[in-house]
Design brief:
This protein has a domain of 90 residues: Thrombin, subunit H, CATH 2.40.10. It is built from four helices and 29 strands. By secondary structure, the chain is mainly beta. The longest helix has 22 residues. The two termini are 32 Å apart. The strands form eight sheets. The chain has a four-stranded antiparallel sheet with strand order 1-3-4-5. Strands 6-7-8-10 form a four-stranded antiparallel sheet, with no helix packed on it. The relative contact order is 0.11. It comes from Trifolium subterraneum. One of its GO terms (cellular component) is nucleus. Keywords: Phosphoprotein, Repeat, WD repeat.
């Protein structure tokens, strides 16, 4: 399945691949020890978790060419091909044609999907060549194996490794930590930054490992939502099943603000596009909350809704409006200027849209065309809505080969290209302008006109 999708802005990826330095034997053994050797206080859960971690350790070991359980020559480790007497053509890991295929051109579009298959978790980095033509070519450039089941992602360009900017993806998962991976590095086996999580377990006097403790200010349950702040590039917001919202300084690697204004799991967070100190959060407690993170102790403002919150999105074309999608298949729009503190009853929405027959898991505004909203649902459909005059009308509908839809996202570089991920685990793309009703209404907003002959 694909649980999350993030588009990468054109031109930010490194043109030529950077291959990770091979880990030393000690590093590999430490990675395996940390992931396999952890014990859980609950013995039954520990057995399941240990089996999962053994499988992941074996997958990582296979990816980097290190045999864990073998006999004979397979037990030997060589830190480089040059030192391995059993490899011929030591300097030909990749021939020139392979390297040419690995180059990312400035005109290429890049999208990352968080995928799980056979209990192994991946970040798939997809390349789209000629995205605005009929000759569009789409393929996986490289993938990154990650240890935990991914639930959400957020791209960020904060320069975590020096320089002016970077190309990183934050991943929230079933675990309590947030991992940040460098998308420009191939064959990496560890994230470059980990926010929160559990401390490494130390052995007690009896030789048994002590119960793991959470790092200071860590989430204590699954991370369900992430949002990067484009104005303050070192700032990341997270939502968790532990009922808390946290603000992180990713450069310092620490939590700066913890907010516990919800009474149930927090599913989604979203920064306002125009006033980027304003944060929305949506929860299973049937509320959406607005907070100014400059004064986090303020009670903020809340809107009551009819069901569990699934996703949130600010309208990029106005400072005051947002939509929230719900587990009952509805989408509601609210104007923040009508906000009240500690709402106890459901407020009047700008509109209420009965969009799908099942949970609306994801919504995405078109950054180019005003009033164009996409919705994706567990009912396996994706719909496009014209929200003009706060009177939504469905202008296109599609049942992609994605299964139950978990994540959708319009590209900013190719505004009418919609990425779709779901239970079938294969990334789908919908060129929405290929639909006559969309083309007729919105072609004027197409910033990327097809080239001649396309």
């Amino acid at each position: 399945m694909i649980a999350a999708i993030s588009w990468i802005p054109k031109g930010v990826s490194r043109a030529e691949p950077v291959f990770a330095e091979p880990p030393s034997q000690e590093d590999i053994e430490e990675i395996i020890s940390n992931r396999v050797g952890e014990e859980d206080e609950n013995e039954e859960d520990d057995a399941n978790k240990k089996n999962d971690e053994v499988a992941h350790a074996l997958t990582v070991a296979d990816a980097i060419g290190f045999e864990l359980f073998s006999s004979g020559m397979g037990d030997l480790y060589y830190p480089s091909n040059e030192l391995d007497p059993y490899i011929q053509n030591k300097n030909e890991d990749y021939d020139s044609e392979d390297l040419e295929d690995m180059i990312i051109n400035p005109t290429d579009s890049v999208v990352v999907s968080a995928r799980t298959e056979d209990d192994v978790n991946f970040l798939d980095v997809w390349i789209l060549e000629d995205a605005n033509t009929r000759d569009m070519n789409m393929y996986i450039h490289h993938d990154i194996i990650i240890p935990e089941f991914p639930l959400c992602t957020a791209w960020l360009d904060c320069p975590l490794k020096g320089g002016e900017k970077g190309n990183f993806l934050a991943v929230g998962s079933m675990g309590p930590s947030i991992e940040i991976w460098d998308l420009d590095v191939i064959d990496e086996v560890e994230p470059c930054v980990v926010l929160g999580g559990k401390e490494k377990r130390k052995k007690g006097k009896n030789g048994k490992k002590k119960s793991a403790k959470f790092k200071e200010d860590s989430h204590t349950d699954s991370v369900l939502g992430l949002a990067w702040n484009k104005k303050y590039s070192n700032t990341l917001a997270s939502a968790s099943a532990d009922m808390r919202v946290k603000i992180w300084d990713v450069v310092a690697g620490k939590c700066t603000i913890t907010m516990d204004h919800h009474s149930d799991k927090v599913q989604a967070v979203a920064w306002n596009h125009h006033a980027q100190h304003i944060l929305l959060s949506g929860s299973f407690d049937h509320t959406v909350a607005l907070k100014d993170v400059r004064t986090p102790s303020h009670s903020g403002y809340t809107w009551s809704v009819s069901a569990d919150v699934e996703s949130l999105a600010w309208d990029p074309h106005t400072e005051h409006s947002y939509v929230v999608s719900l587990e009952d298949g509805t989408v509601k729009s609210f104007d923040v200027r009508t906000a009240v503190s500690n709402a106890s009853a459901e407020q009047n929405a700008t509109f209420t849209l009965h969009a799908h027959d099942k949970s609306v898991t994801s919504v995405s505004y078109n950054i180019s065309a005003p009033n164009l909203l996409a919705t994706g649902s567990m009912d396996k459909t994706v719909k496009l809505w014209d929200l003009s005059n706060n009177q939504p009308s469905c202008v296109a509908s599609k049942t992609p080969e994605a299964g139950a839809v978990f994540s959708i996202s319009f590209s900013e570089d190719n505004p009418f290209l919609l990425a779709i991920g779901g239970s079938k685990g294969k990334l789908q793309l919908w060129d929405t302008l290929s639909d006559e009703s969309i083309s007729r209404r919105y072609e004027q907003y197409n910033r990327n006109q097809p080239q001649s002959g396309a």
